[in-house]
Amino acid sequence: MPLFQYAARNVQGKTVTGALEAVNQSVAARTLREQGLVPISIELGTAVSAKTRRRRRGKGGRVKLDDLVVFSRMLAVMIRAGLPLIEVVNILGEQADKRKLKDVLGQVERTVQEGSSFTEALQKHPRVFNQFFVSMVKAGEASGMLDTILDLVATYLEKMASIQRKIRSAVTYPAVVGTFALLMTFVLVYKVVPQFEDIFEEMGGDLPLMTKITVVISHTVQQRWLVIVLGIAVLVAFLWQAKHTYKGRRILDRMKLKLPVFGPLFLKVAIARFARTLSVLIRAGVNILSALEIVATTSGNSLIEDAVMKTKASIQSGETIAKPLVDSGIFPPMVTRMVDVGERTGALENMLAKVADFYEDQVDATVGMLMSLIEPLLIVFLGLIVGFIVISMFLPLFKMVELVSAG
Q1: 92 neighbors 105 (Cβ within 8 angstroms)
Q2: CA 238 to CA 257: how far, in whole Å?
Q3: 274-277, long-range: CB < 8 A, 24+ apart
Q4: Which pLDDT does position 351 carry in this prediction?
């Protein structure tokens, strides 16, 4: 009969481990429940036991959206099943893959045991649970619909994670190929061109313009490579610093939206996130002013953030939501019209959801188009760079062959 390694929780809430013989996992689970234990994991053999111990220790790295999606789904399922909140958090902490999430959930469990609410416990860990997540949990606790709202959170985070993956795939490929092209160009002008230059000096005569350009670039790279590297490092440091200042963020975000090809894609992503976040918060019953503040902090673009904060001020002074969005000049007319209609008809949540659906589809279509166009464009780009250097090096040799043939 197969031997199963198990981890389970006893009536005191402590985790116990062991092994038992059973026909299959279902029988093993039933046996554990008959013994008053709540199964956490049941796996076959001693090799799996080692894997379970590794999982219990957890892996390093920061907590990502995908981790929060799994956490939200499992939390909703267990709460809906009637398990006590403290026990649910303990179980999820035991099963967490990331060491960071495991530690945070352990602290959340202790905070709740000390008498704090679940919301207050999560608020102490803003690097893992952002303002959106905490506000949704707060709304769920206040309404008694925590499991339902956690399902909303998981669905929302899944959509955001999907958009992030698509943007990353659209940006990473050209960045990697572009970097490879620059490195290859550097090697060519630093190592290969000087060898040809020695041949050109022995030949004498006037060099073609293309060859002169390549030789000048080669000399510059050889003599000023340290200055070039330091210049790139200073530029990266400057951009990093600017990203963390008020004016710098706005300048960079404005430039990002004006980039050819990628600018419209970044705008669609920002609008989709704005609409989806606000729609989910309104649906969960979060106050509109609090919802707008959360949307501003999670928008991912400082220009969108400014427009949303102006919208919040507009509502506080008794005006509409749509007018500040129109005045910002960032949101397309379709978005502002639908927000205006939703506000007047009391269907703002549904209108925002439709806007989010539309722009998420637009992001899918744009990324698909970019991925189909980027590869041939990069091939042309590489061909032009390498082709220019190769042709410039061989033109004098062709000229020499012609002279020898004529002689």
Answers
A1: yes
A2: 20
A3: 274/299, 274/304, 274/308, 275/335, 275/352, 275/353, 275/355, 275/356, 275/359, 276/156, 276/159, 276/160, 276/352, 276/353, 276/356, 276/360, 277/132, 277/156
A4: 92
Contact at 8 Å (CB) between 120 and 111?
Answer: yes
Q: Look at phi and psi of residue 153 and say left if phi exceeds 0, alpha if psi is from -120 to 50, else beta.
A: alpha
129: number of Cβ within 10 Å = 21
Pairwise CA distance, residues 89 & 78, whole Å: 10
In this structure, what token pair is assigned to residue 164? 């992030």
Q: Which two tokens stand for residue 295?
A: 């949307």
| Helix orientation angle between 246-257 and 262-283, rounded to the nearest 10 degrees | 110
Nearest by Cα to 296 from 287, 309, 286: 309
Task: Give me the amino acid identity at 190.
Answer: Y
Give the model confidence (pLDDT) of 319-328 as tens digits: 888 888 888 8
The rounded radius of gyration (Å) of the Cα atoms in the chain is 30
* In the chain, where the domains are located: 3-57, 65-129, 156-407
CATH class of 156-407: mainly alpha
Nearest to 10 by CA among 34, 36, 45, 28: 36
Count the Cβ atoms, other than its own, within 10 Å of residue 62. Answer: 10
- Rounded to the nearest 10 degrees, the angle between the axes of helix 333-345 and helix 348-406 is 170
Weakest-pLDDT range from 47-51, 75-79, 297-301, 326-330: 47-51
Which two three-digit tokens encode residue 105?
């959930």
- Nearest C-alpha neighbor of 13 from the set 116, 101, 85, 121: 85
| Angle made by CA atoms 160, 165, 170, in degrees to the nearest 5 | 125
Pairing outcome for strands 15-21 and 3-9: antiparallel
358-379 tens-digit pLDDT: 998 888 888 888 777 777 887 8
pTM: 0.66
